[in-house]
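Appendix C: a fully annotated inverse folding record. The material below is reproduced so that readers can follow the format used throughout the book. The structure is listed first as tokens, followed by the designed sequence.
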């Protein structure tokens, strides 16, 4: 570092008398007051700052002095630069503050005013807060709370409405379903969400309000539904809304009523015909028996036997027609299924023995009872066991198993016959339908009618050996083994 031109260096004795100096402006007669450390004094009207140091033997003192303005000049320069930098920072900070106010606080203030205004108009209550931030925070909390309440309300309405609701996107893909659809049609949400409309009904419906009184919809299984389609627009986005009502049971009931009406009419006609046939038939049978009593020659006797046999067959048909047409009689009572079954077997015993068919009964009821109509139950068992004997070949077996399933009593009757073809099983319960050469086609129809009246059911299937299996259920039973198809 170069020394300043104003720097003064002096050599003094221990008392401060100047002996030598570097600047001619200072007199040799000057005496300097020696003070420890850095000192400040005035020389010839000039304010200086000085410092001194003694020699090792203490005989000499070196004093260095420099004007104050020279010493403070670097500091003053730094002070100016700092002031300039501070001014620039203040100016830029002001611009930044203006930017923050325009870009953040002004929109925030506008948002606060809108939220508070909405809060006062919709909730009808004043907002009390100590400052604007608290006011905005409270307004937001109230807004969120109100929106959450409305969301819960609409969600509850959507989930708990009696109609099933399916929501599609504009691309006709399922995006949501309500709980009614899942519970009523026994299907899982993930099985429906994401499915295209075409997979549900086989076509894409147009974007318009539509109504179908009957529409086949695939919801895990095929169901017949009443379908209402509506178009919703939310914030410019279109959605398709389906409201479904399952009418499958109504259609089944309607078909059942029609079928019942037909059966009722058929029953009335059958009774009328039966009564008209009964008297002439009795005369035919009487004359045939009279001819046989007179013991005619062989040819006439054979013809009389044929007449009598066919007349008795007609009489049996007439009896069954009258059974179908007549109202249910008697009162229900406690019946022991084992005893009723044994009685039916005993009645059909001669027929079975004549054909060489054995009838076996195994029961685990141990004296249990059912509350039902005794005569109707007896007619059902006679019909089913008789059919089993007819279907079995000579030397065959009819196996009857009697047991409980829950609170229900079950008869499982199996024969060694050829069985009923799968395609024919549903037809055997129709009146006048028969698979036997000389059958009337009324036995199983009558059996089902009686069982329905008793609160029971009947099912037919194929056994492991190929024969027919009939299952009769009476009482309140759980789903069991059923019959094999």
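Designed amino acids, in order:
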């Amino acid at each position: 570092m170069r020394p300043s031109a104003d720097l003064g260096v002096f050599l003094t004795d221990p008392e401060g008398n100047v002996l030598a100096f570097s600047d001619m402006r200072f007199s040799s007669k000057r005496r300097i007051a020696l003070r420890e450390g850095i000192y400040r004094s005035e020389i010839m009207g000039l304010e200086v700052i000085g410092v001194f140091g003694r020699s090792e033997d203490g005989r000499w003192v070196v004093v260095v002095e420099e004007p104050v303005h020279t010493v403070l000049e670097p500091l003053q320069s730094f002070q100016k630069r700092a002031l300039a930098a501070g001014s620039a920072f203040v100016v830029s900070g002001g611009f930044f503050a203006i930017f923050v106010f325009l870009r953040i606080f002004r929109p925030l203030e506008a948002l606060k005013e809108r939220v508070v205004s909405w809060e006062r108009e919709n909730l009808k209550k004043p907002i009390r807060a100590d400052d604007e931030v608290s006011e905005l925070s409270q307004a937001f909390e109230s807004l969120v709370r109100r929106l959450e309440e409305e969301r819960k309300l609409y969600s509850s309405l959507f989930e708990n409405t009696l109609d099933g609701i399916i929501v599609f996107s504009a691309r006709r893909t399922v995006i949501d379903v309500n709980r009614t659809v899942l519970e009523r049609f026994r299907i899982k949400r993930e099985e429906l969400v994401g499915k295209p409309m075409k997979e549900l009904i086989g076509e894409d419906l147009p974007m318009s309000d539509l109504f179908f009184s009957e529409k086949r919809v695939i919801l895990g299984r095929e169901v017949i539904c009443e379908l209402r389609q509506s178009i919703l627009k939310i914030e410019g986005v279109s959605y398709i809304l389906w409201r479904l009502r399952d009418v499958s049971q109504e259609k089944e009931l309607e078909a059942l009523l029609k079928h019942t009406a037909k059966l009722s009419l058929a029953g009335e006609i059958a009774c009328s015909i039966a009564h008209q046939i009964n008297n002439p038939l009795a005369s035919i049978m009487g004359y045939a028996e009279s001819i046989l009593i007179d013991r005619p020659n062989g040819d006439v006797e054979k013809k009389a036997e044929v007449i009598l046999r066919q007349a008795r067959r007609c009489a049996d048909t007439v009896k069954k027609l009258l059974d179908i047409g007549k109202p249910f009689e008697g009162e229900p009572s406690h019946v022991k299924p084992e005893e009723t079954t044994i009685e039916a077997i005993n009645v059909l015993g001669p027929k079975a023995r004549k054909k060489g068919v054995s009838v076996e009964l195994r029961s685990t009821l141990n004296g249990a009872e059912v509350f039902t109509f005794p005569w109707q139950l007896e007619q059902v068992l006679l019909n089913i066991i008789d059919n089993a004997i007819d279907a079995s070949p000579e030397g065959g077996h009819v196996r009857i198993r009697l047991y409980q399933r829950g609170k229900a009593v079950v008869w499982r009757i199996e024969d060694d016959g050829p069985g009923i073809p799968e395609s024919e099983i549903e037809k055997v319960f129709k009146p006048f339908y028969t698979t036997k050469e000389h059958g009337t086609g009324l036995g199983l129809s009558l059996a089902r009618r009686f069982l329905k009246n008793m609160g029971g059911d009947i099912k037919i299937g194929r056994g492991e050996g190929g024969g027919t299996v009939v299952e009769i259920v009476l009482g309140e039973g759980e789903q069991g083994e059923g019959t094999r198809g």
